[in-house]
Amino acid sequence: MISVLIPVYNVENYILRCLESVAGQTYQGELECVIVDDCGKDRSIDIARDFIDRNNSHVKFRIIRHDHNRGLAAARNTGIDCACGEFVMHLDSDDWLEPDAIKLLAEKQQTTDADIVSGNALAHYADREEMLYEPDYGSSMDMVRRTIQLTLDHVIWRRLIRKSLYTDNDIRAEEGVNIGEDHHTLPRLAYHARNIAKVDSVVYHYNCMNPASYMQMSKGKINMPRYRNDSRSIRILRDYFTGKDSDTVAELDRIKADFERNMRATAVAAGDSGCYAILCKEQGVSPHYLTSRFRYFISRCHGLTKIVFNKLFG
Questions:
Q1: Which residue segment(s) compose the domain that 118 sits in?
Q2: Are 172 and 246 found together in one domain?
Q3: DSSP string, 213-282
Q4: Which of 21, 23, 85, 168 is an S-S bond match for 96, by CB 3.0 to 4.6 Å?
């Protein structure tokens, strides 16, 4: 059996498309869909219940309800806890699957005995579509090293994952880290994977047009909620790999330093002195906002001078 895990919170405009894409899977093996109700305030679950009542596909749908809103990370964990399948596939409730997604991933798993099988995704923006290719990882440790980076390579969706990677190694998303919670989850799963594989097909559609999604959360000019979540994820990974792999720990230290420096630079470029001061305090560095702002303007002037010079004499 394969379990598709869908966390649901305030997605009434998207949930039907998501569920229809699961019911329409061409995979003919045992397939269940675990919907985790994280206590939203709209009609998402009503729509889901109505869909389940009308469902005549081979997919077994069920709804698990939280007692109160606990966030995306907790909903991911609840899905894992309640999944009956040997393999799980995470599907965000505003996204959807290609009809052959699970069939292609399952066939690749059967021929490779992989613990993680991934596919490509198509990101949908208001003005364009962008292909998200799954990299060619040379090994499980190569996947670890690349997915600890702060890129979209670490997403937990678009993958078939052996459930025992979670349960045998006590790997869970940290509750409360709801933006990029997969950043501290996938590298730990990959570390324990004996074998990984991929299919060169689009299996997943990533919706980038939901203004209420966690990825759109921001506060002021700087996305502080996402900054704090990413910082926490880096610390979780560093703690996990300490004593396991020194190279990964060293790379995480570099990622942390670059990330914090880039966030301070973003605050300076935005002219947000208040946010800059908060970042400096949380990062334990001395605030030199005026100096940094001056250097920023000097660099901008230098860049403009080069552009003008190249246009005139280049």
A1: 2-209
A2: no
A3: SGGG--BTTB-HHHHHHHHHHHHHHHHHHTTT-HHHHHHHHHHHHHHHHHHHHHHHHTT-HHHHHHHHHH
A4: 21
